[in-house]
Known about the structure:
- By secondary structure, this protein is mainly α.
- The chain folds into two domains: 15-172, Helix Hairpins; 177-237, no CATH class.
- It is 77% helix and 6% strand.
- The chain contains five helices and four strands.
- The protein has helices spanning 3-26, 29-84, 91-172, 177-189, 212-220; strands at 195-199, 202-203, 225-227, 234-237.
- A four-stranded mixed beta sheet has the order 2-1-4-3.
- Helix 1 (3-26) packs antiparallel against helix 3 (91-172) and helix 2 (29-84) runs antiparallel to helix 3.
- The N and C termini lie close together (8 Å).
Amino acid sequence: MKTDLISLxxxxxxxxxxxxxxxxxxxxxxxxTYEKLQTELKDLAxxxxxxxxxxxxxxxxxxxxxxxxxxxxxxxxxxxxxLFGGTGSNPKExxxxxxEIKHLNQNRDLLETEVLENMExxxxxxxxMSSLKERIRERxxxxxxxxxxxxxxxxxxxGQLGKLANDRELKTKDIDNELLEEYDEIRERKGGLGVAxxxxxxxxxxxxxxxxxxxxxxxxxxxxxxxxxxxxxxIILKE
Length: 239
């Protein structure tokens, strides 16, 4: 077999390896895992912002109610001082004062209940926030590990592609230009496979047996190659 035909088959091996590495680079599982984690982290960050707003609003409510409770307690203390301070002796005024204090105490009881209920809401929100932050930390660690895996895999594949590109350049120098152009054109049309060995009369690309008359023609040709009648690729007789 002529040297350039051997080189052409070897070039096909290189091109197939390049195609495989490129597909692997494009379909990296590690990259998809990393992208999925990044999407989840964005969603979690959005939930964290929303949770912070809820906590902020609920704390404002709590501060307001605490302030109201403090003012109400001060007012009750003031009214009780009037009642028990001996400054008033009018029975009607004292009765009205007692009624006012009773009403204020009822309001304070209701407000204290609201404060306690709001504290429970705050506690629940804080627990959810704590759980959310823990989940974010876990996903950040996973994303960091996934990113390292992506970079490692990309570096490996790109290094492999760089070497293969260099091998290809060197190999093409051993092949006739016209034959190389024809091979590249067929390879582009045929999904990356432009040439195949012919072994025991069978095209190794489409795995169809070449007719005996065609096989005789190839055997008797000086170039020892032809085109597969089935897949139209270059076929090279491999002894």
